[in-house]
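Expect chain and fold; see below:
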Amino acid sequence: MKVICCGDSNTYGYDPRSYIGGRYSVESRWVDLLREKTGWQIENQGENGRMIPRFPLTVPEDTGLLVVMLGTNDLLQYGSPVQAAERMEKFLAGIALARQRLLLIAPPPLQLGEWVPSGLLVEASQELAARYRSVAARLGARFADAGEWKVALSYDGVHFTAQGHRTFAQGLYDQLEKEKLLCWKQE
């Protein structure tokens, strides 16, 4: 099955120990770990610093699943889960793909750290999952809350550790199995 993962630096696989935008190895990034576990053709469209786009994403017609995990950078810039959820709903509503082929993932909540100096940001990130769950329900899309997976974050309070990537990959795999998506075949 062809899968597209649209996200920010945690989808890209950014290694916070690298000051020049380096990535974790292929053996550590959640997208690559998921590819290995499923055998799916997975395209990583993660970009460092990506916020929720203002315009819809164009996806090929043969896309079996679009995984979207964005919103962390929106919170870091503006701090409002309400605004992030509104932008996410507009973004997803404009994507020409059957809704059951959309999986919206609420990112793990932020933690106090070098990039997260305020408890208000942590609280805002904790609120995002409930808002995204409502967005997914209104649109008829699938939803997962990565906050339930206990993903380890680095010293900055934002980025996954190498272990965090492995935990995230397993949490997503379990979610896909629970929703019976692992048996989907490319049409």
About this structure: The chain has one domain: 2-178. The CA atoms of residues 56 and 181 lie 24 Å apart. The longest helix spans residues 119-139. The two ends are 8 Å apart (CA to CA).
